[in-house]
Here is the input.
Amino acid sequence: MTATDPALTALAQGWCALSLLHGRIETHIERALQARHGLSVREYSLLDVLSRQHDGDGGHLQMKQVADAVVLSQSATTRLVTRLEDRGLLERYLCPTDRRGIYTNVTDAGLKLLEEARPTNDAALREALDEAAKNADLAPLVHVVETLKAPLPA
Here is the structure.
């Protein structure tokens, strides 16, 4: 295939459309979360992921798993955890069975903020998708997002 190959051009256009949709959604949600709750999309995502942990086998996520879930590097995730810990929304403690392991849990204040922010996140997502659906190039992607089921963890 060459750079002018129609298949590559179509692929690049599809990728651009997907990137555009993602950017619009993220920007819309970011504005709503910041304005109403003082949270970024990444902070909200981190609180959401960590709130789903549980005690017992496989219940606490390793930092790599958390980083993968919030689509950040491990170092960026650690910095984000530290910022939220400084705000009293997360806490870290040593694993009781392996002193090398460190767990991160959402505090009561973090759970309260997440509960307050969830409707804002959901409404902003719906608004962003509804707006994007008006664009003929993005409408098929919106349909896919609306019908797609989350993949099972690997």
